[in-house]
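Propose amino acids for all 148 sites.
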């Protein structure tokens, strides 16, 4: 039987619980944007350009889905698009891509250091990077840099 005094405060304090759920909602809202700008940056670096057709193929989604997401990213001033032209990151989009790439790398290194197989670590890092707090990320980075 669990000691009631040891219950996680987030589960007993409505304000703490609401803050936790709010943080997760915010992370979900930015997750797609971060994935898109990160992939756009990667495509520009690898291929010299990023096109909607390439995004659709890499994400495994329809061209219509990519166009809808790009329209949202353009409204949020993360990308610039023009008909029949490549996709470009704005300064804000490039900064978001760099931040996502940094978080991904730290999480990947941490998972590898603690013994998660490389293929699993790569898959898991893709999701965790969007939901980890800066505080937890700093701990992951410290452990990854020091090793076990």
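Proposal:
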């Amino acid at each position: 039987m669990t000691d009631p005094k040891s219950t996680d405060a987030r589960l007993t304090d409505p304000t703490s619980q609401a803050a936790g759920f709010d943080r997760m909602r915010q992370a979900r809202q930015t997750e797609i944007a971060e994935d898109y700008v990160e992939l756009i940056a990667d495509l520009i670096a690898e291929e010299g350009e990023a096109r909607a057709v390439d995004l659709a193929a890499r994400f495994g989604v329809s061209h219509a889905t990519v166009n809808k997401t790009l329209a949202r990213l353009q409204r949020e001033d993360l990308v610039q698009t023009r008909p029949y032209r490549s996709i470009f990151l704005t300064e804000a989009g490039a900064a978001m891509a760099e931040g996502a790439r940094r978080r991904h790398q730290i999480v990947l290194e941490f998972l590898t250091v603690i013994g998660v197989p490389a293929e699993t670590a790569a898959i898991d890092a893709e999701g965790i990077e969007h939901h980890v707090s800066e505080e937890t990320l700093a701990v992951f980075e410290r452990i990854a840099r020091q090793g076990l």
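The chain has a mean pLDDT of 88. The domain at 15-146 is CATH 1.10.10.10 (Arc Repressor Mutant, subunit A).
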